[in-house]
Amino acid sequence: MNTRLERITEESLALGAELIKSGELVAFPTETVYGLGADALNGQAVKKIFAAKGRPGDNPLIVHVASKEQMMSLGYWNDNAEKVFNAFMPGPITMVLKRKMVPDEVTAGLDSVGLRYPEHPDAQRFISLAGPIAAPSANISGKPSPTSAQHVFDDFNGKIPLVLDGGECGVGVESTVISLVEAPILLRPGGVTLEQLVRVLPDITVHDAVLANVKLDAAASPGMKYKHYAPIARVVIAKNGEGLYRSALEKGVKVVYYRKQDDVTDARNLFARLRRADEDGLQLVIFEMPNKEGIGLSVANRLLRASAFTVIEKGEVFSLLLGGDTVELQG
Ligand code: AMP
Ligand code: MG
Fold it and tell me: Does ligand 1 have an atom closer than 6 angstroms to the CB of 39?
């Protein structure tokens, strides 16, 4: 298949909407990351997303809408849904509600559905033309999420007909996911921060899986149980990043070290940095331990997964496997 990479225009949006309506996949920009979209009401089309990404079948998709009415037609509304909608939508947040008429392929058979109303103007125009769109992040499953159209093209060239190019994503990490089916719970931190959520939902709790490597039941937040965001290079979080970096350089390891800046910038750069590691043929990527405030909580959540929960203490000896060899580094 020939994959077209098209800047967003009236024509490319119309072409994208036509492809979605005929059961094809189209990648499109949002304020968080690029999405790989299919008609949310067409189970056969939605199946193609799982095949193209290599996504496990029990990991549900988020349905993207372009109005409140559309959202209310897909999930059962409640008081908390109204509060969250008024406070944060359109925006980088997904709410899980009891599902109405959404196919099993979208929800992975769950009785609930994740609903999102993106803020990105091009995403809104696209969804308005194409109808509700089921879309996960537009990356091969397990790889870092895409924050540019080129990232999407790198992963899906030859596999999907169209990538709509709307430039770089502003937020850089995926949407916040909260469930409002029962008492409010944060399942995945993202573009809307926990501090913002607490102001609207004072009794919201945080799922253990946000910052820990816990076993998960299927319904909690299925996506959290999979290896995620990982480049080929080894990723670690270090308490003494400078020391570990020097130690790696001395041993001739191809390494990069990212000190934290501010949480918003760190979130925006995160996935591009992970992708660049492989383009540059690096062996080790060291990140300073993020602050867990604001969007920093999302950066910590993604980095913990990208590093398979590897946090190196100051002074700790870290054994880095390189092919058949082990190199001992000091944190
Ligand atoms: P992605 O779009 O790839 O960023 O993944 C979407 C994530 O949203 C999934 O991995 C799930 O963790 C979460 N999600 C979507 N729908 C539901 C649902 N019905 N219940 C719980 N979590 C959901
Ligand atoms: Mg994803």
Answer: no
> How far apart are the CA of 265 and the centre of ligand 1, in A?
25
Q: Whose CA is nearest to atom 22 of ligand 1?
A: 221
29 vs 112: CA distance, rounded Å = 25
Query: Which tens digits make up the pLDDT trace of 294-326?
Result: 999 999 999 999 999 999 999 999 999 988 899
Contacts of 22 (CB under 8 A, 6+ apart): none
The domain boundary residue, chosen from 210, 226, 244: 210
What does the pLDDT look like over 97-120, one tens digit per residue?
999 989 999 999 999 999 999 999
Phi/psi of residue 2, nearest 5 degrees: -85, 125
Structure tokens at 241: 């990043």
Q: Is the CB of 187 under 6 A from ligand 1?
A: yes
Distance from the alpha carbon of residue 255 to the mean position of ligand 1, in angstroms? 33
Please tell me whether residues 104 and 31 are part of one structural domain. yes
Contact 100, 73 (CB under 8 A): yes
8 Å CB contact between 7 and 149: no
For residues 286 and 170, state if they share a domain.
no
In a shared domain, residues 242 and 154: no
Domain shared by 101 and 191, yes or no? yes
How far, in Å, is the centroid of ligand 2 from the Cα of 136?
A: 5
Residues 324, 288: one domain?
A: yes
Using one digit for the tens of pLDDT, what is the confidence trace for 190-230? Answer: 999 999 999 999 999 999 989 988 766 554 666 666 667 88
Mutate to test the pocket of ligand 1, among 31, 33, 59 (most ligand atoms within 8 A of CB): 59
